[in-house]
Amino acid sequence: xxxxxxxxxxxxxxxxxxxxxxxxxxxxxxxxxxxxxxxxxxxxxxxxxxxxxxxxxxxxxxxxxxxxxxxxxxxxxxxxxxxxxxxxxxxxxxxxxxxxxxxxxxxxxxxxxxxxxxxxxxxxxxxxxxxxxxxxxxxxxxxxxxxxxxxxxxxx
Length: 156
Hints:
By secondary structure, the protein is mainly α. The chain is built from six helices and no strands.
């Protein structure tokens, strides 16, 4: 029963996140830029930002970081869903998840070609996929470290 609940919640969270990404892509160019502009404006006020980078470049950086993070989270949610199916996480799963994120990112960019003021970008697909890969690698490293610490505690 516990596994079915884990499976159901994992699936639901994954679908909700995919719908969130789709919804963000459905925003017009003006809406999307307005959202990231507000975030960039709030963060740009931190010390040294004004001296280190121009606002336009900072705004672009915020937009690209959003892509990277959205798909990084998507990658981790897919891994979690696969784990809920009883599958162990290994390099084959990481390749599958990265491929899935690549395809979803490409379809998402294609979808944007139909949205007012938006267009597809191969660069964004690359950033999205890189986010999925990097997040998986970071989580993998953290899990290995956590398991090693657990083993050290068991030995002592």
